[in-house]
Design a protein that fits this description.
Two copies of one chain form a homodimer.
Chain A (H helix, E strand, L loop, with lengths): L1 H28 L6 H7 L4 H7 L3 H25 L4 H18 L1 H8 L14 H14 L9 H20 L8 H12 L3
Helix pairs in contact in A: 1-4, 2-3, 4-5, 4-6, 4-7, 5-6, 5-8, 5-9, 7-8, 8-9
The structure holds a DNA duplex.
InterPro entries (chains A, B): Homeodomain-like_sf, HTH-type_TetR-like_transc_reg, HTH_TetR, MT1864/Rv1816-like_C, Tet_transcr_reg_TetR-rel_C_sf
Organism (chains A, B): Streptomyces reniochalinae
Protein name (chains A, B): TetR/AcrR family transcriptional regulator
Chain lengths: 192, 192
DNA sequence: CTCGCTTGTCTAGCGGTGCTAGGATCGACT
DNA sequence: AGTCGATCCTAGCACCGCTAGACAAGCGAG
């Protein structure tokens, strides 16, 4: 059995390598530059090897998205648990979210802009995505205000953050006033 | 000179045909299906003709986006001018915006998701885009509240709408509660 | 009315994409 | 040590955006 286990390990390692390389390449040169040929060359295997791990490019994007979701959830929890009081927590959450989107644009795209073939807001939604949403809920749920469903509030607040993140990065909003927009959002939306 | 004028008219007409066909095809089958070959076939010309009107595919997307911006600005103004009082105006604005995004997903993508080679939030931003933003400002500026710059408020509110529009359409948010999210957003963000 | 020329259009092709069939090779078990 | 199965690569498909160069149509001049 040891042989099979070793092969299993090698296979898993190579899968991680593919995902990590795809992410790296996407962050460096954008998702357009992530072609199956370039990716194969970087991992020093031929193209068909990619297809023995993933159904296609979209599944690779999906895998990057899942990793990003796990990472984002951790970052959000770290930021909010270090803050005192609801207001500080919500502000920290918002800042961390936007910061993550800005620092990892390719990963953020994989999660929310590109088609990674992932299910959302459904039963079969992968755990990392549910957990990232849960991380938002944990902090936002306590400032939803009376009579407002915390889930609905979380969705709405999240959508606002997502809008800020994407429009800012796409050059649709002037980048300078980002912080003031965050303060406005937190001050108005959250019931403190 | 009449000959030249006629050619000019024909040329302009064909350009409109290209843009309209691209939009139609994108709405029917998604932007992925809008290839230069298919587009050329639909307008009953060969591919190179497209390139005598536009630098490339991205410019065609940009042209669709500009048309969409004009249309959206008109829709927003029509909706807000028919409403009485700030609250009704803001609600009508939000609903109309989201409705436009939902009914014209391909055009909305051309405007805000895809790269149409357009400048935003800059001096050389095309007039239709500036005007669409102005349409938002006209209604949102009056509910920014004291001490908040109306432009900043408009940007923030717009970002929230954009987030709702994109996340809903991408299946990231459950579609049923759209109306309640709008009410929450309007009730909290706008100072009435 | 005919001729030369400009203007416009098409055919054909380049380098690239995601993806796959089928053959070669390598390594594990008997 | 030899067989046989898993694993990987070469080669190729159909399609993409885009363009060079051949070709024809329609104009103005004589």
């Amino acid at each position: 059995m040891s042989v099979q286990e070793r092969k299993e390990r090698e296979r898993a390692g190579r899968e991680r390598l593919i995902v990590a390389t795809a992410r790296e390449l996407a962050e460096q040169q954008g998702w357009d530059a992530v072609t199956t040929r370039r990716l194969a060359e970087r991992i020093e295997y031929s193209q068909p090897v990619l297809y023995s791990h993933f159904r296609g490019k979209r599944e690779i994007i999906g895998a990057v998205a899942l990793g990003g979701a796990t990472e984002m959830a951790a970052a959000l929890r770290a930021a909010t648990s270090a803050a005192d009081g609801p207001r500080a927590r919500v502000t920290a959450l918002a800042r961390t979210y936007l910061d993550f989107a800005e620092r990892n644009p390719a990963v953020y795209d994989a999660m929310f802009q590109l088609d990674g073939g992932l299910a959302f807001a459904q039963e079969d939604t992968p755990e990392p995505l549910k957990d990232a949403f849960a991380a938002l809920w944990e902090t936002l749920g306590e400032v939803a205000g009376d009579g407002v469903h915390p889930g609905l509030f979380t969705e709405t607040f999240w959508a606002a953050l997502h809008g800020l993140a994407t429009l800012t990065r796409a050059g649709r909003l002037p980048p300078g006033d980002a912080e003031r927009r965050v303060e406005l959002l937190v001050g108005r939306l959250a019931v403190l």
